[in-house]
Amino acid sequence: MFSALKADKKVSLKNELSEMYQNSKNNRATGKNYLMRRYGAAAIITMALLISTSLIYFMYLDHPSDQLFDKYYKPYPIASSTRGINLTPSEIIEAYQEESYEKVILLYEALELKEAKTQMIYANSLLLAGRPDKAELVFRELARGPDPDIRQYANWYLALTLLKAEKNEQAKSQLIKLINEKMIHMSDAQNLLRELEE
Question: What is the pTM of this model?
Fold first, then answer.
């Protein structure tokens, strides 16, 4: 009987020890998983915040060419676009004056207008809507056109478009052309070129 009690106690003790061992093993695993989940999540969140903050900082950081663009850019004057015969639809002029550049682009493209002054408004709208590559093409076309006033404005805005697109060497060449040909914006071109070369 004594040995039977001993055997029962042994089994009971063995079961208790086995249970305690399993509980401690589970607690350790749970503890590690808990720590990994807690600190792993914190590390992931920290990295995500660092990356997003860096992206936002560099996306919205003013580059020197952006600052120069803002300093020298003035919208194409509607007054000069309405002299003489006005072929520009009033909705486009109104949208441009209201700085609704996307609306100008949509109206222009829907109407397929080819009048030079309207194209000038369109190209400026493209530039201000953040599409300098497309604006560059239109300004280049206008810079080769027959109207001398439009050509001079187009050459100036082409230089600013190249600046906005961070094509500084091309912008410098365009500014030199403006200066050499003594165009309307010659003094602005000289000042901008000086600032670009600093």
Answer: 0.65
